[in-house]
Write a structure and sequence with these properties.
single chain, 409 residues, three-stranded antiparallel β-sheet, 16 helices, 17 strands, globular
């Protein structure tokens, strides 16, 4: 009796583009909107789109669902429950499927936690950002830290056993003392997972427009904040498995790892991205255009690109080096049939600088290397591209010589 073939894993991302209010630093696609009619129409489009694409995933097993935003908890538990019910009906979910939902402390309570947990959500990501009410107010967060404490308590009473907290360092007026206090206050809440992001002042946001008058920590201060957090979280038992992510053993985000490990996922909603069936594509950044396109049969694709397997080599470097797993020579050669030697030479130079290390045969960046990862990974990708072009030229020359030899024969 032949064993059943192993079905490839698939992640699903659902974008909920509604918030009570927009934070001053946010450039994700979302709207400050509480109009029930707009949300109901969006829900109809989401449900239709999820059902429409289900046949394409019939040979996959969904092992992660991530509901992000925006603020999904502001969207309402009943709508989330309906979405998950349809996904369970139309897709093949693994028995241990990780189902994550983002939430803000001001828009979720014990009843909602319990309702959502019964609907299948088994992991919550809570937007905390800071333990300082002054810092929260400065960037337009709609909650206090006391509401964070109350939300975590409500989650535990609702028997939520997998909770992640998001924190930001580099906020206006933040110093090392207040950042340390934020991390300590977060640790006191005993989350299973922590994400620590450096503030990026994105063009077009309210924070960008007043950047010259804000007391923003400089790059060196942000670096000190980051390196201190890495050490403190390690002492507290949280393993760093990606540049910004730390987890207790076994509590890493399965869905986010899909992005960094170049696994397949399908996104739904405006501005959502997908990597599925050899194609990368994204949808339009407009609720109206997305809803009208889904319900009326119009186009909703903003960009699409078919990526050949060897073309994934650049993604392998760019994404794997964001993680503690890093890259490995034999894996690289086997997967892409490409020469790793030029990369190894540069990685050894990074090792001398304290930016990289080799552990059990795998190269990975150190916390100091993570701080300059964009520069280091960019250099490695340039080396890779040059090696690829050189290899292509060498192959072409060999082919021409062979053709010349054949003509002589």
């Amino acid at each position: 009796m032949k064993p059943k073939p192993v079905m490839p894993a698939l992640g699903i991302y659902i974008h909920i583009p509604f918030c009570r209010s927009k934070c001053d630093y946010c450039d994700f696609y979302s709207l400050a909107c509480g109009d029930k009619n707009v949300m109901d129409r969006y829900q109809r489009a989401l449900l239709a789109h999820v059902e429409e694409l289900a046949p394409r995933a019939e040979n996959h097993v969904v092992d992660s669902v991530y509901i992000g935003g925006g603020t999904p908890s502001y969207y309402g538990a009943d709508r989330i429950k309906a979405l998950l019910k349809l996904i369970r009906k139309k897709y093949r979910l693994s028995r241990d499927c990780e189902i994550t939902m983002e939430a803000n402390p001001d828009s979720i309570d014990r009843k909602a936690f319990a309702h959502l947990r019964r609907a299948g959500v088994n992991r919550f990501s809570l937007g905390v950002q800071s333990a300082s009410d002054r810092e929260l107010k400065e960037v337009g967060r709609p909650h206090s830290f006391q509401q964070v404490r109350e939300a975590v308590e409500a989650a535990r009473k609702a028997k939520v056993s997998n909770l992640s907290l998001d924190l930001i360092y580099g906020l206006p007026g933040q110093d090392m003392h207040s950042w340390r206090d934020t991390v300590e206050q977060a640790l006191a809440l005993s989350p299973e997972h922590l994400s620590c992001y450096g503030l990026k002042v994105e063009e077009g946001t309210p924070l960008w427009r007043r950047r010259e008058t804000e007391d923003l920590p400089d790059g060196d201060t942000q670096a000190d904040m980051y390196l201190w957090a890495v050490d403190r979280l390690a002492q507290a038992g949280y393993r760093q498995y990606e540049i910004s992510n730390f987890a207790k053993p076994g509590m890493e985000s399965r869905h986010n790892l899909k992005y960094w490990m170049t696994e397949e996922y399908i996104g739904f909603g405006p501005a959502a991205h997908s990597d599925f069936g050899g194609w990368r594509y994204s949808f339009v950044r407009s609720i109206d255009r997305y809803v009208d396109g889904v319900l009326s049969g119009g186009s909703i694709v903003a960009e699409s690109e078919q990526i050949p397997h060897r073309g994934r080599s650049a993604e392998y470097l760019m994404l794997r080096l964001r993680t503690s797993r890093g890259v490995e020579e034999a894996e690289y050669r086997r997967e892409f049939q490409m020469n790793f030697d030029p990369l190894a030479v540069r990685l050894k130079e990074y090792w001398k600088q304290g930016w990289a290390e080799q552990v059990e045969g795998r190269w990975r960046l150190t916390p100091k290397g993570f701080l300059v990862s964009n520069q280091l990974i960019g250099e490695l990708m340039d080396i890779q591209e040059a090696a690829t072009l050189e290899g292509t030229l060498e192959y072409t020359q060999k082919l021409e010589r062979r053709r010349t030899d054949l003509r002589k024969e």
